[in-house]
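Input (structure):
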């Protein structure tokens, strides 16, 4: 009954756009601004290949024959990888480009490939960070139907509903809660498809450790601009929050990608999107075209439905910043691996066999080798501030409405501007220092543990040998005493001799 009443009241209030009931509006109101739409024409995901995973990259290249273009004019990718990892001066190069079986895209050297229906094409580009890390960035070009997928869910007329879980009582959801659930799940579905494809096609560090790859989706709005000039109304805040965009107090923007804001999915406000290593790069489509017109001039007139030029434009400007973000995420995973090893050692203390210790030593050796190799290269990469023409350098600053509020409070800025590249470099240096300390500590502990275990194993072997010796002697004596008369008389003599010693 309550469900039916809720649906009826929802329809009544939806018919009164000027409803003055703030309580009802706060709980149930979900009204997208008239004319607002969103498209997701592209996604960008990153995979890393540290020293321990370099052979896997070469196997994938050989298996898929990415380097064998139809004209045979490109150098084999595994040759480029070998040169790059030996210190040659390589920058970004193309590993391969794949187009769907029914795609009409005309990309030079692209291979026809069975792609998920959501994607029209996928491009894999690689770059070497020092000598130890090969980074692969996958650009997913989304079909027009796929680009509309999230918008079609977002635009639905939501009503209060009961949601049934497996083995659980049904839960009552408001219209806003249903919008959040379904819209964010639709966005997450695109992320899952992209990550799964990359994991299968080009598995590296994140795939090997069961972690989601860093991913950015490009969201183009019809109305909303990245500047966030005004504080959103409560209703608009909820509307865009349904997409997983919840931050309106500061922006992360770049003069090299004008009209776009880089926003990380926050775990405390977004519940149906995997918040590990997920960002949105969003802005108003027309504003992006207008402010980047010098770049788009080479494409001629861009059709209102053609977002490929925008995806290419973003890829060229974003890839190095995405690389820096992803390095921080890789270091966090390494820190988790050390923590897991430490906690496992505590819980299994006293139960390790020599075989288990050898396995643990092998895992630690791999971790230690990777950390010591990548630490040097990451430092050089950050110190050099490696930039190419058009690389976007993002700055985090307070939104205009927050700055206005600060001015009214006396001019004190509550959120000072921060250069993201500098912040990430400092964060990575601190994380590397902690990882190096952890590595040295764990290696010392493991060495001591192995030594103690070896001594305990030797003591166990000695005790076992003594027991076997005593048992063998006992068996021999019993055998002599129970065989034949000759032996029996011998036993009597032995008994007589022992008795003569005066013990009895």
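Output (sequence):
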């Amino acid at each position: 009954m309550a469900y039916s009443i809720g649906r009826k009241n929802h329809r009544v209030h939806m018919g009164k756009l000027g409803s003055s009931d703030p309580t009802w509006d706060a709980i149930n109101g979900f009204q997208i601004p008239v004319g607002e739409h969103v498209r997701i024409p592209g996604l960008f995901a990153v995979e890393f290949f540290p020293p321990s995973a370099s052979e896997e990259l070469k196997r994938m290249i050989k298996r898929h024959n990415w380097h064998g273009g139809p004209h045979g004019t490109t150098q084999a990718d595994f040759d480029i990888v070998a040169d790059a990892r030996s210190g040659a001066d390589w920058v970004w190069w193309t590993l391969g480009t794949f187009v769907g079986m029914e795609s009409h895209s005309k990309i030079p050297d692209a291979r026809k490939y069975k792609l998920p229906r959501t994607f029209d094409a996928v491009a894999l580009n690689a770059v070497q960070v020092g000598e130890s890390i090969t980074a692969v960035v996958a650009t997913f070009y989304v079909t027009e139907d796929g680009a509309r997928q999230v918008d079609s869910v977002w635009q639905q007329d939501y009503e209060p509903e009961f949601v049934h879980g497996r083995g659980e009582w049904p839960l009552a959801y408001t219209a806003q809660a249903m919008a959040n659930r379904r819209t964010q799940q639709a966005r997450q579905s695109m992320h899952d498809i992209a990550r799964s494809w990359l994991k299968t096609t080009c598995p590296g560090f994140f795939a090997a450790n069961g972690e989601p790859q860093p991913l950015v989706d490009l969201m183009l709005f019809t109305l909303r601009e990245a500047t966030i000039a005004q504080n959103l109304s409560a209703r608009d805040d909820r509307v865009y929050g349904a997409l997983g965009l919840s931050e309106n107090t500061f922006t992360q923007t770049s003069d090299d990608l004008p009209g776009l804001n880089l926003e990380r999915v926050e775990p405390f406000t977004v519940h149906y999107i995997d918040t590990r290593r997920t960002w949105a790069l969003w802005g108003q489509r027309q504003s992006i075209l207008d402010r980047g017109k010098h770049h788009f001039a080479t494409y001629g007139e861009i059709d209102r439905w053609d977002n490929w030029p925008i995806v290419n434009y973003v890829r060229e400007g974003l890839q190095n910043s995405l690389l820096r973000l992803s390095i921080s995420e890789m270091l966090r995973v390494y820190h988790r691996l050390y923590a897991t090893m430490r906690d496992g050692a505590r819980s299994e203390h006293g139960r390790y066999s020599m075989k288990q210790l050898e396995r643990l030593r092998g895992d630690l050796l791999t971790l230690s080798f990777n950390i010591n190799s990548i630490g040097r290269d990451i430092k050089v990469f950050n110190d050099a501030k490696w930039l190419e023409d058009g690389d976007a350098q993002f700055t985090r600053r307070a939104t205009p409405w927050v700055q206005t509020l600060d001015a009214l409070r006396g001019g004190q800025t509550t959120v000072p501007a921060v250069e993201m590249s500098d912040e990430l470099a400092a964060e990575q240096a601190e994380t590397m220092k902690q990882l190096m300390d952890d590595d040295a500590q764990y290696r010392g502990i493991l060495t001591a543990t192995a030594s103690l275990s070896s001594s305990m194993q030797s003591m166990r072997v000695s005790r076992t040998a003594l027991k076997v010796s005593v048992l063998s002697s006992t068996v021999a004596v019993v055998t002599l005493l129970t065989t034949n008369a000759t032996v029996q008389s011998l036993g009597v003599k032995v008994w007589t001799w022992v008795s003569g010693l005066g013990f009895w």
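Notes: The longest strand covers residues 38-49. The longest helix spans residues 420-481.
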